[in-house]
Amino acid sequence: MQNQTPSGTEQTKSKEDIFLVGLRRAGMRITAQRRTICAYLANTDSHPSPYDVYQAVAAEHPSISRATVYNTLNTLQQLGLIVEISVGSDHTHYDTDPEPHVNVICLRCHKIYDYEGDMGMDALYTAVQEELDFQPVGARVTLVGFCSDCRTQRRTEIVAQWTEQQTEQQATASGKPVPASPERNDD
């Protein structure tokens, strides 16, 4: 008999079922709205914020309350079925991928990327187990920094600031009045 792997739809469906079973076991009623929240989370490749989830679900269920979304996300997070990712104040997102991976977060634009490459976790697990007599069962790794787009944008901003400073210095040296830039308020 051939070993068959489930299709993407079956894998997604089972992820949705896991969310629904978790909510049911936590004592929550499984409403059409909660089913839609779980379906959205099971099918997303992004790291949605609570507002992203609310907007997506409200398109199908206009009467849904934000409290329903927040309570459902909170329960799923407490059950360990999704992971809360804090990207600074007022920038909470959720990761629905239970497989080991690294979340890479841009400190400027707050985009979250997944890195699925070799993280050397086996060696880390072994070292922790041997050195601390601790049995790791999972890990969450987050790298923070600046994405390519934000680095490019920042370089452009630095060049513009430098150019403005040079213009001001040249004007001051020549005794000419310095024209006010649109962002400057010398009043």
Give structural notes.
The chain is mainly alpha-helical and 187 residues long. It has two domains: 88 residues, Arc Repressor Mutant, subunit A (Orthogonal Bundle); 75 residues, Ferric-uptake regulator, C-terminal dimerisarion domain (Dna Ligase, domain 1). Helices cover 50% and strands 12% of the residues. It is built from six helices and five strands. The strands form two sheets. It has a three-stranded mixed β-sheet with strand order 4-3-5, with no helix packed on it. It has a two-stranded antiparallel sheet with strand order 1-2. Helix 1 crosses helix 2 and helix 2 crosses helix 3. The longest helix is centred in the C-terminal third of the chain and has 27 residues.
Beta-strand proportion: 5-15%
Largest sheet: 3 strands, mixed
Which blocks of ≥5 consecutive residues have pLDDT under 50? 1-8
Work out the count of structural domains.
2
Q: What is the CATH class name of the largest domain?
A: Mainly Alpha
User: What is the mean pLDDT?
Assistant: 85
For the record, the CATH architecture of the largest domain stands as Orthogonal Bundle
**Neighbour order of strands in the largest sheet:** 4-3-5
CATH superfamily of the largest domain: Winged helix-like DNA-binding domain superfamily/Winged helix DNA-binding domain
State the end-to-end CA separation: 82 Å
Instruction: Output the structural class.
Output: mainly alpha
CATH fold topology of the largest domain: Arc Repressor Mutant, subunit A
Radius of gyration: 24 Å
Determine the number of helices (DSSP H or I, runs of at least 4 residues).
Answer: 6
Shape, per Cα inertia axes: flat
- How would you spell out the order of helices and strands? HHHHEEEEHEH
β-strand number: 5
Q: What portion of residues is helical?
A: 40-55%
